[in-house]
RNA sequence: GGGGGAAUGUCCCGAGCGGCAAAGGGGGCGGACUGUAAAUCCGCUGGCUAUGCCUUCGCAGGUUCGAGUCCUGCUUCCCCCA
């Protein structure tokens, strides 16, 4: 980032101040467009899964700030590119998604965007096109003639991502080599359709975005711009968005609100300030105050981070409920009825069910073998009492207030209720 | 087309004289310590109706009391020559 540059637009001021920016092709240019209220920007999203996860949140937030500062955000669904399958994840035979799957994923993903952006027909309202709209209509010969001639292979070969692969003798498939052409074409097409001037994305997208700018110029678009965000890792170097249980999904049906809240609550100390800036709307003054908290006090900042981030996605009411459940569970050690509950046939419980199987049944551990191991290391508890006998049975006698509380480790609790 | 390598515990990397549920890492999980953090230390890291049974080393056959290990064929990937 150019050290001397001082933005005049709200958009760049916010992004710079909050740490969203890694590189920008032309700060002054973007700044001027934003200042004039003419900035329309897009970010591409895969629709390989029915939900985005935390890893995409920085991108979503950039679109959100764009809208809040007077620009028009364009989240682009990669419905067309998804059909090809992104080859850069080098694990070979990635399954091809059916068109129905892709369509379903798009619908599901759009729900998330509507939490962060306002869609509509207005000047700053977001629109969500799908690159399948133009990519699938392409004819190979026409594409080569109209678009392909603008790509310089010499130039493509000189790009870092390509150069690296060639130097290491790693295979670079033709389809992968073409992927950037399709993405570049998206940019040109979005300019044509929406007057989109800026493409944003993660820092790994820089090369692809710049290729798009280049193509735009050759195809007669005005100057286009690139802006990338830093690749996010936690302070200890782990990738964001992955936990033991899998990805931190944004859709509530794939990750319960409580778990989402917990994800943020468990942020490392060193990340609190950075995350508050990136993942909440809190004013900077407030954030500066929170990140100055030291020692155990920083837990207050983490709770605020969790509640704010959750509220943005799932609504304030749900966020408060998650916060309250956590408070009861951790600070009062009391049984909160809002913990996830799994039902069991009343008769089954009356007959007695093995502890190990009970833990497997509610999904806290994957197998009885794992349950057995956890008993040995003291990781399982029933009604807060450590399980020491793996042969123990759970019966109606274990019901406390109509349920049995099963805990795995300190943080994972599930209630077992007879039905 | 010719020659030479490689594929191992369904997260990854990676050892493996014919007796192997298979060394060692990383990652992950649990425990201790804390603050629901980090760091550190300890334990665990195929499945089950479990003093036993079943399934794992690219795929399919074969040799053998016994195969990840030896043989044959196949698949995929890499390297060298053409």
What do you see in this structure?
This protein is an alpha/beta fold and 419 residues long. It has 19 helices and 14 strands. The N and C termini lie far apart (60 Å).
Helix content: 40-55%
**Largest sheet at a glance?**
5 strands, mixed
- Number of DSSP E strands: 14
Lateral strand order in the biggest sheet: 1-5-4-2-3
Instruction: Categorize the overall geometry.
Output: elongated
Low-confidence stretches: 86-95
Amino- and carboxy-terminal Cα gap:
60 Å
* Average residue-wise pLDDT: 85
Helices and strands: which structural class? alpha/beta
Number of helices: 19
Descriptive terms for the model:
single chain; 419 residues; 5-stranded mixed sheet; RNA-binding
In short, what is this structure?
The protein is an alpha/beta fold. The chain is built from 19 helices and 14 strands.
List the helices and strands and how they pair.
Layout: H1 10-18, E1 23-24, H2 27-35, E2 40-45, H3 57-68, E3 72-77, H4 79-84, H5 99-116, H6 132-135, H7 140-146, H8 153-157, H9 160-167, H10 174-194, E4 198-202, H11 206-218, E5 225-229, E6 242-243, E7 246-247, H12 257-265, H13 272-279, H14 284-291, H15 298-314, H16 316-331, E8 341-344, H17 346-351, E9 353-354, H18 355-361, H19 368-376, E10 380-382, E11 385-386, E12 393-394, E13 404-408, E14 412-418
Helix pairs in contact: 10-11, 12-15, 12-16, 13-14, 13-15, 15-16, 18-19
The structure holds one RNA strand of 82 nucleotides.
């Amino acid at each position: 980032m150019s050290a001397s540059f001082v933005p005049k637009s709200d958009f760049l001021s916010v992004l710079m101040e909050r740490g969203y920016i890694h590189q920008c092709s032309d700060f002054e240019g973007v700044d001027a467009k934003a200042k004039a209220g003419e900035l329309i920007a897009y970010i591409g999203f895969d629709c390989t899964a029915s939900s985005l996860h935390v890893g995409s949140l920085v991108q979503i937030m950039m679109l959100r700030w764009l809208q809040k500062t007077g620009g028009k955000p364009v989240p682009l669904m990669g419905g067309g590119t998804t059909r090809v399958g992104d080859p850069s994840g080098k694990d070979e035979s990635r399954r091809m998604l059916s068109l129905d799957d892709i369509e379903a994923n798009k619908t599901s993903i759009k729900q998330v965007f509507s939490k962060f952006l306002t869609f509509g027909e207005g000047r700053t309202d977001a629109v969500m096109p799908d690159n399948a709209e133009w990519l699938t209509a392409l004819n190979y010969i026409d594409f080569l003639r109209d678009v392909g001639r603008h790509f310089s292979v010499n130039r493509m070969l000189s790009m870092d991502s390509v150069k690296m692969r060639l130097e290491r003798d790693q295979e670079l498939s033709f389809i992968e080599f073409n992927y950037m052409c399709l993405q570049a074409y998206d940019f040109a097409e979005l300019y044509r359709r929406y007057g989109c001037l800026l493409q944003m994305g993660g820092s790994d997208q820089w090369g692809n975005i710049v290729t798009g700018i280049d193509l735009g110029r050759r195809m007669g678009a005005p100057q286009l711009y690139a802006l990338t965000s830093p690749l996010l890792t936690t302070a200890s170097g782990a990738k964001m968005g992955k936990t033991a249980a899998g990805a931190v999904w944004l859709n509530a049906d794939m990750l319960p609100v409580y778990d989402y809240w917990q994800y943020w609550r468990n942020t490392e100390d060193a990340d609190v300030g950075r995350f508050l800036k990136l993942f909440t709307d809190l004013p900077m003054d407030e954030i500066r105050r929170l990140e100055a908290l030291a020692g155990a006090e920083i837990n207050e900042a983490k709770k605020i981070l969790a509640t704010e981030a959750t509220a943005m996605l799932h609504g304030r009411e749900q966020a408060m409920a998650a916060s309250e459940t956590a408070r009861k569970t951790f600070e009062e050690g009391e049984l909160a009825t809002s913990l996830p509950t799994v039902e069991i046939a009343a008769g089954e419980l009356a007959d007695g069910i093995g502890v190990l199987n009970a833990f497997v049944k509610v999904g806290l551990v994957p197998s009885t073998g794992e349950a057995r191991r956890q008993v040995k290391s003291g990781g399982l508890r029933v009604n807060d009492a450590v399980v020491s006998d793996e042969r123990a049975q759970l019966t109606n006698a274990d019901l406390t207030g109509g349920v049995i509380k099963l805990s795995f480790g300190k943080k994972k609790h599930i209630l077992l209720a007879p039905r």
